[in-house]
């Protein structure tokens, strides 16, 4: 499956990205390559492969997972301590969506 330059420009616009013509060409090639790889993967017969929610090594069932432990919450004051701007208990960020 190939992706077109107009599709790359459309997605970039949705993401509020301003791409140069050179970046659009590079993204077109890279995204087309990813989609071609996905097409190859779709050709594989996975009918007998059971679905997985977590990839585990060949060891105990929880070999790659740590046990859950309760911890006290961080708290707003500590969370906002290094924020460039904070106000009313929240992070203040510049407006990024103009539409």
- The poorly predicted ranges are none
Helix count? 3
CATH superfamily of the domain at 1-44: Glu-tRNAGln amidotransferase C subunit, N-terminal domain
* Count of strand segments: 2
Order of helices and strands: HHHEE
Gyration radius, rounded: 23 Å
CATH class descriptor of the domain at 1-44? Mainly Alpha
Distance between the termini: 32 Å
Strand-residue fraction?
Answer: under 5%
How are the strands ordered across the major sheet?
1-2
Q: Percent range for helical residues?
A: 25-40%
CATH architecture of the domain at 1-44: Orthogonal Bundle
CATH fold-type name of the domain at 1-44: Histone, subunit A
**Sheet having the most strands:** 2 strands, antiparallel
Mean pLDDT: 87
Structural class: mainly alpha
Shape: flat
Question: What does this entry look like structurally?
Answer:
- This protein has a two-stranded antiparallel ribbon.
- The protein is mainly alpha-helical and 99 residues long.
- A hairpin with a 2-residue loop joins strand 1 and strand 2 (90-91).
- The protein is flat and about 50 Å long.
- The protein contains three helices and two strands, in the order αααββ.
- The mean pLDDT is 87.
């Amino acid at each position: 499956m190939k992706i077109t330059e107009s599709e790359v420009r459309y997605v970039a616009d949705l993401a509020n990205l301003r791409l140069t013509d050179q970046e659009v060409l590079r993204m077109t090639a890279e995204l087309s390559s990813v989609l071609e790889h996905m097409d190859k993967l779709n050709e594989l017969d996975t009918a007998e492969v059971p679905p997985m929610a977590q990839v585990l090594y060949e060891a105990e069932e929880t070999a790659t997972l740590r046990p859950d432990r309760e911890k006290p919450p961080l708290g707003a004051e500590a969370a906002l301590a290094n924020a460039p701007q904070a106000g009313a208990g929240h992070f203040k960020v510049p407006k990024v969506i103009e539409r």
